[in-house]
Amino acid sequence: MKAIRVHSFGEPEVLQLATVPEPTPGPGQVVVRLMAAGVNPVDTYVRSGKYGRLPDLPYTPGADGAGVIFAVGPEVPSQLQAGLRVWVAGSLTGTYAEAALCDAGQVFPLPERVSFAQGAALGIPYTTAYRALFQRGEAKPGETVLVHGATGGVGVAAVQFARAAGLRVLATGGSEAGRRMLLAQGVSCVFDHATPDYMAAILDATDGRGVDLVIEMLANLNLAKDLTVLARCGRIVVVGSRGAIELTPRDLMVREADVRGMVLANAPLPELARCHAAISAALEAGFANPMLGNMFALAETAAAHQAILAPGHAGKIVIRTDGKS
User: Fold this and answer.
1) Which of 50, 124, 134, 161 is most solvent-facing, going by the fewest CB within 10 Å?
2) Which is it for the CA torsion 161, 163, 167, 168, positive or negative?
3) Residue 130 to residue 147: CA distance in whole angstroms
4) Percent of the chain scoring above 70 in pLDDT
């Protein structure tokens, strides 16, 4: 089968298409014939070698995907049968490939109404969004949440979860297409974070009270500004950052605010299980609806890694792994 292999950490060019043996399932394992794989920013950090936890070389990147169960090992729950459409949240062999070996607990039924490309957009983005909102951010119905940088996979997922839970949602986006997409998702107010006065406009949208919770995708640019639009006892959950930042501690003090970090890899297994259960319930209820952006062939994975870090993209970037361009 075809798969992307990385033999040395570095720039996107280290992502090489190769032929590798098909995996065979052991006890408690399944093989998923993948139709699509999700591309996440963390994939680029690992590929570059600039992440805290690095795999042994060589490796196949990717944690998210969707496809059809192809082979089932012994001791697998009876509901996981060959031919079942599934979405994948983690794998043992990487999802930038035509097939992936997974533990049974890493695959979940994918409703017929959800495309394989949308299924590949669920794992890390929707798990991150749910954990940021409810496990780290303690979001409550009636509160106001600002999703700062909402046009990517995590941002869209956070908007959908927050609206379904009864929160008022404000959001920012860096492109006109992205802001239109957010309005179509039911966001109350959308702001262009490229304009100099957008933080004042966010404060105005709350009648000067401020927001209860911020889901922050790029803390090195925005964290100090986030503090100025927080309500008293507000919380900020830092989902992403690419550098250092200087803060004014008094902005924290006068609001008695909390800044909470989050790395999905730190989530205890019971909390991850609750996230995955919430995603499955959201799919069944119909409000989990991943918005897709650019799609790439498996041979174009290097371009996908460049695109995921480019500013202004709207929707989830996905790799086609079924051999079609």
Assistant:
1) 50
2) positive
3) 13
4) 98
Look at the pTM and tell me if it is higher than 0.70.
Answer: yes
Work out the burial of residue 106: count CB atoms within 10 Å of its CB; fewer than 13 is exposed, 13-18 middle, 19 or more buried.
buried
Domains of the chain by range and CATH?
A: 2-122+290-320 (3.90.180.10), 125-265 (3.40.50.720)
Read off the amino acid at residue 37. Answer: A
**Do the Cβ atoms of 52 and 112 come closer than 8 Å?**
no
CA distances from 278 to 23, 97, 153 (A): 30, 27, 17
Q: Of 180, 150, 179, which Cα lies nearest the Cα of 162? A: 150
DSSP code string of 136-177 = IS---TT-EEEEES-SSHHHHHHHHHHHHTT-EEEEEESSHH
The confidence band for 293, taking pLDDT boundaries of 50, 70 and 90, is confident
Rounded Cα gap, residues 320 and 325, in angstroms: 7
